[in-house]
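Possible regression after last week's pipeline update?

I re-ran a chain I had predicted before the update to compare outputs. Posting the input and the new output here so someone can diff against the archived version. Not blocking, just want to make sure nothing changed silently.
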Amino acid sequence: MKKKIIIILIVLVFLVLSFFGIKRLIWNYKVAHAKKIVELATNQVPVYQSNIRIRSLIKEINGKLTTNPKIKTDKIGKQTIKFNYTTDEGYPVSYEVEIEVIDTTPPKIFQLKSKTVYTGYDGDLAKSLFCGDNYDPNPKCTIEGEYDVNTPGVYDLKFIGEDQSGNKSTNSFSLTIKDKPKSTGGGGNTSYTSFEEVKEKYKAENTKFGIDVSHWQGDINFKKVKEAGVEFVYIRVGRGDGIGKDYVLDDKFERNIKGFNEVGIPVGVYFYSNANSSKDAEREAKWIMKQIKNYKVDLEVVYDWENWGNFQDYDLSFYGLKDSYQKFNKTLKEKGYKGMLYGSKSYLESVWDNPVEVWVAHYTEQTNYMGKINVWQLCDDGKVDGINGYVDLDIRYE
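New output (post-update):
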């Protein structure tokens, strides 16, 4: 009797399992053969460096998305996007579409009105003008029009920048070619900006007044600078010696940082960069930290990249330039240092897109820089007791 009951139970279990197994097979079959309707919007295309997800690209779908992946827009070209959704009949399905990220931003060539060279100019005129692109590290930059570098005169020309996606910028300008003047000697600028007057004019609860120095300032009398009321200083630690070359320590760096440390003026440092990749920028940051490790550095380590006059030689897109700066900052942050970017107002706004930590150079009575300012370099003809000659004057906002 017990044996029969066991057999019956086994049969029942088998039948139940078979039922659910068949049901699962039927379900899997329906899911596998579920009707899928997905139509992409023809007027919505992912653009390079945009923030976009697959949902915004779908015009029609027979169901609701259960995943909404972000489109990778750091590179242009085609890519396959996979996502999941539940059909109107309740079937969970997977789907994939091929989309293409495009670049619609033309190169920036800076709207120059005129340029002057001397007769016999033997450089590449197109390369001497600023031409760069958000994505393309090597946009095609050309000059349209006829001119003769050996014949003085004014020539009406066009400067054209075109990237690999066919985006184009055009700017008309006049090229003046003239004979090089003979030197008359003597003379020189005798005007200057007084540090005391700057302090009086711009003093506020959140401002401090300082300078930035390099070997150009010679041997500084640090005690006199302190007594003059200088509240901070940025010292040049060094510079790149060219693209891919070694670094050169500023020959007054050690004297300067020791001197300012001794009199108790808060110190930051800056480095004139020639990096054309994030790898180069990381190497620069490590070199800088090696030079400053035995000194007191209270303020930021500043990335000074301003090779705009020969930008085309660096094979850099604006994205690559910003990526280098971010790597520089990250490398410093990992060791407890804080980074900052130095640049002129025009390039900070047009190329760097107003970064967070900024030391802006803008020689004017009152800067109208569009972004947040940490430090403002307002002139390069400052006079401070303790320094022979001119020095840059800076205001720090805290």
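Follow-up from reviewer: compared with the archived run. The mean pLDDT is 91. Marking as no regression found.
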